[in-house]
Amino acid sequence: MDPMKPFEVPADMRKFAEQSVDQARKAFESFVATTQKAVSDMEGRAEAARSGVLDAGSRAMSFAERNMAASFEFAQNLVRAKDAQDVLRIQTEYVKQQLAALNEQAKELADVAAKLAKDTSAPKSPKT
Questions:
Q1: Separation between Cα atoms, residue 19 and residue 22, nearest integer Å
Q2: Cα separations (Å) of 74 from 21, 61, 94, 99, 109?
Q3: Would you kindly state where each structural domain of the chain is located, as residue ranges?
Q4: What does pTM read for this prediction?
């Protein structure tokens, strides 16, 4: 081989190399697009989770405030009771009200939890 003679790549090898580079570029572009979509989906799910947790926390605090207010009202009513029969009536009313409130609160929190689970597990449609 003459060292002064320029090296020539055979046409078939050049074509194969060009195709390989083109395929690699397309594969990388597909990988990047898929990765960007996955990151976007995760961001959407994280935001849904954050929003759901904030909603659940807010509701729980509201429930706690209402339950404490009901407890203080119950205590005030007990102090004003005229006799044992009045105490029993006040106690019965309070227990009934609290059981109804706790039942409703549990249902609301279960609904929030179900929505949170749905929002964080369902794939998000792409934003346009």
A1: 5
A2: 78, 20, 7, 14, 25
A3: 15-121
A4: 0.62
Token output for 32: 């990047």
Residue 83 identity (one-letter amino acid) = D
Task: Report the alpha-carbon distance of residue 119 to residue 44 in Å, rounded.
Answer: 9
- On whether the CB atoms of residues 119 and 62 are closer than 8 A, the answer is no
> pLDDT digits over 86-113, tens only?
999 999 999 999 999 999 999 999 998 8
Judged against a pLDDT cut of 70, whether residue 18 lies above it is answered with yes
**Residue 112 half-sphere exposure toward CB, CA atoms < 13 A:** 18
Residues 6 or more apart in contact with residue 75 via CB below 8 angstroms: none
